[in-house]
Design a protein that fits this description.
- The chain has a 6-stranded mixed beta sheet with strand order 1-6-5-4-2-3.
- It has a single domain, classed as Rossmann fold (3-Layer(aba) Sandwich), CATH 3.40.50.
- The protein contains 6 helices and 6 strands.
- 38% of the residues lie in helices and 26% in strands.
- It is an alpha/beta fold.
- It starts with a helix and ends with a helix.
- Helix 3 crosses helix 5.
């Protein structure tokens, strides 16, 4: 019986190797999905040990806040000073932090990106969710011009060739995350917070 699983595991390993799988692993605490009935408010923090430039940091943080708020339905409190890595001084009603650690290696017309994301509940000091994604992308592409233009206008010309790769890597990471369901009062809170940022 054990030996039947070996061909399946081998197939998955080879498939990931050949297809340049983006998400390397995902770990969730046993109580993660249950906690989403109460845990809905977060801030995004870029890990200070990330090895990316300042414009890329701003872009990655902005993309992360947008994705968590609009695709995962978290109430994302603005955190422009990147404070609260130790759960102290969180703005508003924020209950936790989404920490993002990024690395970037550029080679000719390619960029290798890696993102480690962690969702932490500050009241229980528990890591609820963690995932690692990494992949290599072309920086020569002319696809998704509106995305490229939006982030270039916001963060400068130095991010022009990196906006699409960063977006695809972060989207793959966040697609693995389950988000909360907001009630009407929480939806109003979210709209109010988004209107302030």
């Amino acid at each position: 019986m054990r030996f039947r699983k070996i061909p399946t595991l081998l197939f998955v390993f080879v498939f990931c190797l050949v297809s340049n799988c983006t998400v390397r692993y995902v770990k969730s605490a046993p109580e993660f999905e249950k906690s989403l009935t109460q845990f809905k408010r977060v801030v995004v923090i870029l890990d200070s040990t990330s090895s990316i430039g300042l414009p890329e940091s701003g872009m990655a943080k902005s993309m992360s806040e947008q994705y968590l708020a609009h695709h995962k339905e978290f109430i994302v409190y603005p955190n422009p000073k990147n404070k609260g890595a130790d759960c102290s001084g969180l703005p508003g009603k924020a209950q936790g932090i989404f920490t993002l650690k990024l690395t970037e290696e550029s080679r000719k017309s390619e960029i290798r990106l890696s993102a480690l994301g962690q969702l932490k509940n500050c009241s229980s000091n528990t890591i609820l969710w963690e995932a690692l994604a990494s992949a290599t992308y072309s920086t020569d592409g002319e696809d998704e011009q509106s995305l490229r233009k939006t982030y270039t206008q916001k963060f400068g010309e130095s991010v022009a060739s990196k906006a699409v790769p960063y977006y695809h890597l972060l989207r793959a990471l966040f697609d693995e995350l389950t988000g909360p369901v907001l009630n009407e009062a929480e939806q109003d809170e979210k709209i109010e917070i988004e209107s302030q940022s």
